[in-house]
Amino acid sequence: MAYDINNWGERVFMKKNILCIGGLIIIVLIGFAYYINAKKVSLKLEQNAEKISIRDGNNGKIIEIARNEDINIIIYQINSLNLEKKYKRADYTGWEIILDIYYKNKERQESIVIRHNGIEYNNYFYGENNETEKLLSKLKKIANGN
């Protein structure tokens, strides 16, 4: 039985191409899966705040918190919610509670809006966690002196 050398070379070349293309597809799929999972960003606020202002959108009351222990408790509660970045926020007209956080190393404060189903921060919505509703209630009580 005689072998056609030219035909054999073409088969080897085609098998190599198929393996290369298949390998590239697998690499792209693995990269895409990694990108999707790595893209999840959780809301984490810095701990070095020197003051927090709680503004109540319903009655306009503002209370300032400057005691380190109280500031750390509020920031810890927000960070422990482990809220993931969901989407770029839409422009809303109303809000119930806004926290203005003043950091020692920054000239301007950062503002976050606490909603019943999540938090708006830096033009993004972070949510969904049932515990956000409890945080909102606590902050309302603080803002109203209760």
Please give the largest β-sheet. 7 strands, antiparallel
Tally of alpha and pi helices: 3
- Low-pLDDT windows of residues: none
How large is the radius of gyration?
27 Å
Shape type: elongated
Helical percent range? 40-55%
> What is the N-to-C order of secondary-structure elements (H for helix, E for strand)?
HEEHEEEEEH
Quantity of strands, as a count: 7
Alpha-beta classification: alpha+beta
What spatial order of strands do you see in the largest sheet? 2-1-4-5-6-7-3
What would you call the quaternary organization? single chain
Distance between the termini: 97 Å
Percentage of β-strand residues: 25-35%
Average pLDDT value?
Answer: 80
Structure description:
With 146 residues, this protein is an alpha+beta fold. Helices cover 41% and strands 26% of the residues. It is built from three helices and seven strands. The chain has helices at 5-38, 68-80, 131-143; strands at residues 49-56, 62-65, 84-88, 97-103, 110-115, 118-121, 124-127. The protein has a seven-stranded antiparallel sheet. A hairpin with a 2-residue loop joins strand 5 and strand 6 (118-121).
State the main characteristics.
alpha+beta; 146 residues; single chain; 7-stranded antiparallel beta sheet; elongated; 26% strand
Sequence-ordered SSE layout with sheet pairings:
Layout: H1 5-38, E1 49-56, E2 62-65, H2 68-80, E3 84-88, E4 97-103, E5 110-115, E6 118-121, E7 124-127, H3 131-143
Antiparallel strand pairs: 1-2, 1-4, 3-7, 4-5, 5-6, 6-7
